[in-house]
User: Fold this.
Amino acid sequence: MAKSTKTIDNSEIYRQIGLCGTIREKLQIDEKSLLAMVDTYGCQQNEADSEKIRGYLAEMGFGFTQDEFAADIIVVNTCAVREHAEMRVLGNVGALNHTKKAKPGQIICVCGCMVQQEHMARKIKMSYPIVDLVFGPHELWRFPELLLEVIERHKRIFATEKDDGAVAEGIPLRRDGKVKAWLSIMYGCNNFCSYCIVPYVRGRERSRQPEDIVREAERLVAEGYKDITLLGQNVNSYGKDLDRGVDFADLLRMINGIPGDFLIRFMTSHPKDATEKLFKTMAECEKCARHLHLPVQSGNDRILKVMNRNYDSATYIKKLELARSYMPDLVVTTDIIVGFPGETDEEFRDTLRLCEKVRFDAMFTFIYSKRVGTPAANMPDPYSREEKQAHFDALTETANRISGEKHREYEGKTVRVLVDGETGREGYNLSSRTNGGRLVHLKGDTSLIGQFINVRITASNTWALYGELENG
Ligand code: 5AD
Ligand code: SF4
Assistant:
């Protein structure tokens, strides 16, 4: 049983599913006679949450649309990690004034991390009267109950109480694709990196029971999914809140034991919790992709310390060397923040030096964004936006050059890829991924989607590889 993790009783979820039926009757929905649109911002965890929202909406009988003028209900699932995402959300929610005017019965819901912040919930309440329902990530499991209240009482509902969060099993899911699937293994974060809002809006780390995860993975494999990404803010601390003696490496091994031809991916890993046991397990599990996304955030030890990351650059590099000693073909990607409060030019140069040393296959780079309520928001931040932008540009240039060089090494080689969709372009109409997660464009029949095939890489650039079917 869980040591500290609160679980939502199954009967509660059954009740919510029952309420979906009540909503269907109240709105007189006759098999997709009403349409829903779910708009998702931010990370993969949010994508996974939106699949639950769609699951509930499908249970209510809604069909789905991407057209906000056609939608009878719109759910905007928001992100709070950076200001830019919040601005986009507010702009797009504001624009829904037009759709609601054209369709007065339209129900508008805003959920997710952004509205879990008190000041943002208040802003929506005061300045966006078109919004009917606001709920934070902790209330997602009771979306049907909240929506029913809006429908029955004709009033605006705000459900964004502070909460450490819980684990709810059995929420219906509606996944988008047929090839790749997200599988949440845990929620929340305990790390409190000084710049990050996530621990404040997503609550404490809560792991799902290993049996529930394995059962879901088995179902995905049986349904034909070929690429399963295990999700958590910090998957390496999986199981620490459970008294089960199962850590993340053990979980990987359990999922690897499911028969079938599929790939296991995971994100995100915190360097401080990435262990030799994890690398050894990855190397021994043939279904585990040779890809490690290990956010370093900075290459400077003073900055890492004030970021509260709990490792230094030498430890990070040593861990990667260890990982590469087990998996020489490992693809390594990272996240980096430039312009953290007080970061000097020389401190930034340490980040560039680390990147040259590690040679990441891909880097996700961000300019620091001040988040209300985090410790970094109160730190002196003397450098101008222009100075930060110059550092960002230098880092992007380095990242692009290294990615391009790494991609060129694939040219002439044959690699196994999973074809996962169409590009919409004629020359290279299919998209696929290598075991390590690199994007490969191909020309071929759409019947290949969902299949593992061998391709010869003929060209590359910073962002992608281009290949031809072997024997094709
Ligand atoms: N400003 C800029 N980037 C941030 N990230 C998290 N918080 C912030 C912030 N306040 C970045 C980190 C993290 C990624 C998901 O987003 O690099 O790894
Ligand atoms: Fe944010 Fe750090 Fe937690 Fe990642 S590990 S979600 S950066 S607090």
Remarks:
- The pocket of 5'-deoxyadenosine (ligand 1) is lined by residues 81-82, 195-196, 295, 297, 335, 337, 366, 368-369, 371 (CB under 6 Å).
